[in-house]
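Input record (one chain):
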Amino acid sequence: MKEKDSCEIYCYDEPKVRKVQHALEGQNIQGMIKMFKVLADETRMKIAFALCEEDELCVCDVANIIGSSMATASHHLRTLKQLGLAKYRKEGKLVFYSLEDDHVRQLVQLASTHSRELITNGK
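The corresponding structure, as predicted from the sequence alone:
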């Protein structure tokens, strides 16, 4: 017999619901959605992961890592920058990108760890 995965009656814990609703009011949910949408792209996730492995990479390095043209790498890096996930600095004729801050690094590393655990657990 299949186990039901939803409540069989309707009732809720009013204090918990109000507390969480209040907490949600103070959140930038749209900003969080944008961040996850940007990282949901395979190429940009590869770039973000690469920038976790190396603190800084030039556009040429990124293009070689992801197997793309410099124009494609630049486009994806610019998208990460525009959404506050990456930053860059120019040194002569080279442009070096890095993650904006440790929060982004933690997010990508956590996703990596969790995805490996899912594979290990057969999910």
